[in-house]
Write a structure and sequence with these properties.
Length: 382
């Protein structure tokens, strides 16, 4: 994602758009910068920089305290979209993932078309931009994704000789495993570009850099055989929403829970899972996250069922009638077994599940905003 934390802040607060946003500690403290917008980066502000230095470089910057729940929510939305294009998704951080579309060409089109479709879906549904790198392996894809930020889409060469020529002029720091210390060692040897590394023998690199020498010898030639690891089977599915301002508005809370329940159900169906337990998540003025849950007589992945139960749990919770900062819905305790004395009830659920799968197909093709359940709408209370 592009300047992820700062981009979420600019999306959620229009007053910050186009401004130098610095997410992290507040001026006057000894903390550091967690993220900075591209506007702030023009002044030299970077993540992990002491906030005092950031303030000196960008005295007119807008300093924002991190909202990790909001970033996590946006990350979940984006990963859900990626998983609709391929089951082989490896999330490596809150704002970065690898996607393997090998074998999906007939269904999805060329890699470039897939990348454009992903970018379009994410922009439409989250109002955020991402930069995509297309390549034959993870190293080259990561490198390509960094070349045209923000909102970029770069395809690396796939031919071996073309890959070597493409990498040659790049700074040596582009190679995986080359940090400041290794970079300084290269500089002392007069090695400044990837092309300079390509000229070195395997023996030299191993003698100079130990076990990492062989890795550098391969990387400078674009060789990287680490596979994309499919996400581990989830033990639960949940979605949360953080309001810009605390709210006790019943209409807002009901419609938000309805939308979250729909997202939970759709993801569970995509993973062919049903939950025996429905979970309500909430956070009030105490900033502590609380949960309530109810175990069912029969597992479900139906949004109406999930919603009715989380609303029931919410009404019975101590937070009901008081301002809410965050609210969420989920299912856990997965199972696909059905008790024999519940077959009649299961038959009606099959019909509901079939109707919701039809909705899934529309959403997959046209996006989440193509169809809504009655009363559904996510609110940012102003």
């Amino acid at each position: 994602m592009d300047a992820f934390f700062a981009s979420v802040e600019q999306r959620d607060n229009p007053a910050l758009r186009g401004k130098p946003v610095i997410v992290g500690a507040m001026p006057g403290t000894r903390g550091v910068v967690a993220a900075s917008s591209y506007e702030a980066r023009k002044f030299g502000v970077r993540s992990a920089m002491p906030v005092s230095r950031a303030q000196a470089l960008c005295p007119h910057g807008f300093f924002v305290i991190p909202r990790m729940a909001a970033y996590s929510e946006a990350s979940h939305e984006i990963m859900d979209i990626l998983s609709e294009f391929s089951p082989m998704v490896q999330q490596v951080s809150v704002d970065e993932a690898y996607l393997d579309i090998t074998g999906c060409e007939k269904l999805l089109g060329t890699p470039l078309n897939v990348a454009k479709s992903i970018k379009k879906r994410i922009k439409q549904e989250t109002k955020l931009t991402i930069s995509v790198g297309i390549a034959p392996n993870k190293f080259l894809a990561k490198l390509a994704s960094d070349l045209e930020k923000p909102d970029g889409c770069t395809m690396a060469p796939f031919d071996k000789s073309e890959i070597i020529a493409w990498l040659a002029p790049m700074p040596v720091g582009r190679l995986f495993g080359v940090g400041k210390v290794t970079e300084e060692l290269f500089f002392k040897q007069g090695i400044r570009t990837v092309g300079d590394v390509q000229k070195q023998s395997l023996d030299f690199l191993v003698k100079r850099f130990g076990d990492n020498g062989k890795n550098l010898y391969e990387l400078c030639r674009g060789i990287h055989n680490t596979e994309v690891h499919e996400l581990e089977e989830a033990k639960s599915v949940s979605r949360e929403h953080t309001f810009q301002y605390d709210t006790a508005d019943i209409a807002i809370l009901k419609s938000t829970l309805l939308s979250l329940s729909r997202d939970v159900a759709r993801r569970a169906r995509r993973e062919n899972q049903k939950g025996n337990t429905v979970v309500l998540i909430y956070r009030g003025k105490d900033f502590n996250k609380h949960s309530r849950r109810k175990t069912l007589t029969m597992p479900t992945n139906i949004s109406r069922t999930i919603y009715s139960i989380v609303w029931e749990l919410f009404q019975a919770s101590p937070i009901f009638g008081h301002p809410v900062r965050l609210i969420g819905a989920g299912i856990t305790n997965f199972s696909n077994e059905v008790q024999t004395n519940l077959f009649e009830a299961e038959a009606s659920n099959v019909a509901l599940e079939a109707s919701e799968k039809a909705i899934d197909a529309v959403v997959s093709k046209f996006g989440k905003k193509a169809i809504f359940l009655g009363g559904e709408k996510i609110h940012n209370t102003q």
